[in-house]
Structure formats: C-alpha cells, structure tokens
Design a protein that fits this description.
The protein is mostly helical. The chain has 6 helices and no strands. Helix 2 runs antiparallel to helix 3 (about 80-105) and helix 5 runs antiparallel to helix 6 (about 180-205). The radius of gyration is 17 Å and the shape is globular.
C-alpha cells in the first residue's frame, strides 16, 4: 500500500503540469499555446505567476516522491537492478532540478535583456531535457531485464526516439522563431508526461 501512494504521485504529477499549462493559458488571453513556450507562463513578472508556480512545484514534488517509490520497487527486484537504481535516482534528480528552475531561475521576458537567472534558466532547461532522455533510456534498459515490464522497455525506447526528434524540431523552431515553436515544444513535453503517467499507472496497478 505504501508503494501505491508513491506511484499515485507519479500519476498525478503530469496532471498537475497539464493543469498549470491549461489554466495559465486560460488566464492570459494573449498567450498562444502554438507560439509561446511553456516557460513564458512562468516568466519573471508574468500575471498569475504565483498560482502557476505553486502548481509546478507540486508537480515536481510529486515526481520526486514517485522517484523514491520507483527506487524502492527497483530494490525489490534483486536481479540486474543497478541500472534501475540509477534511473530512479535520475528521476528524483530531475524533480529537484525542476524545482530549482521554478523557484530560482524563471524565464526572462523575450523583450528584455538576458540576465543571469534568465541565462541559467536556458542552461538548466537544456540539462533537464537531456536528463529526461537519459532517464527514460535507462528505464528502458531496466524494463527489458524484468519479466513484468518487458514490453514497457520497447515502449520507453520509442518514447526516447520521439522526444529526441521532436525536441530537435522544437529547438530549431526556437532558433528561427517559428510561429509553431510552442506546438513543437508541447509535443516533446507531452511525450515525456504520458510516459510518466503510463509507467506510474502500470506500477500502481501491479504493486501491492
């Protein structure tokens, strides 16, 4: 039952993130989900920033708790569990990094000069993206070693490919300031969110 609570956190984490983006867009009529980056909802001086920050903090905290639950699950599987431990640890680290970005390094508005916090935001978001890819890849490797999760290994590998391809498109769109940059970014983020939701749901259903 204790593990189920951790896995429930993993199910809820993507939902709080989606709530943040949907609610943020609704509260800013000029905001476009196809053009603007998600981070612009939380940029310095953004309207309704506090409530959106709270939702994102909750999402990251839930993700950290999910990571601790996965860490316990991995340790239960005594055979070939080192990769799983690293993957679960990176999942926790991603949540901590997400909290750090939200609280200390918000995005700077596009029209303003880039400050140190704004620069750190760009750097850490890039690190977080790479960390997410590595994490899912390691889970894919670990899943392939577990009889209960074999098919989720292939699913995770496919997710990694989707994130890499769409992430590259999103990065290129940002560089050329494409009007579809926000859409490209959201496809990448959604791929990651749905992976977290599906894996957490699987673990919740099968755990005791």
């Amino acid at each position: 039952m204790k593990l189920k609570l951790f896995f429930l956190c993993g199910i809820l984490s993507p939902l709080f993130y989606l709530l943040m983006t949907i609610l943020g867009g609704m509260m800013r009529p000029e905001y476009s989900h196809t053009y603007h980056a998600v981070s612009e909802l939380l940029e310095r001086g953004a309207p309704n920033k506090l409530i959106l920050d709270i939702l994102l903090v909750i999402s990251n905290l839930l993700n950290i708790l999910f990571g601790f639950g996965v860490l316990q699950l991995v340790r239960i599987h005594q055979q070939k569990h080192r990769t799983g431990i690293v993957a679960a640890s990176l999942l926790i680290a991603a949540g901590v990094l997400g909290l750090t970005i939200t609280v200390f390094f918000p995005m700077e508005p596009r029209q303003l000069p880039l400050t140190f916090p704004g620069l750190m935001h760009l750097i850490l978001v890039g690190v977080l993206s790479i960390l997410g890819i590595i994490t899912i890849f390691l889970f894919a490797v670990w899943f392939k070693q577990q009889t209960d999760y074999t098919k989720y290994g292939a699913y995770s590998f496919i997710t990694v490919i989707i994130i890499i391809v769409t992430g590259a498109v999103a990065a290129a769109s940002a560089i050329i300031e494409s009007p579809l940059m926000g859409l490209a970014e959201r496809i990448t983020i959604t791929a990651h969110l749905q992976w977290t939701f599906v894996i957490a749901l699987k673990m919740y259903i099968t755990s005791k």
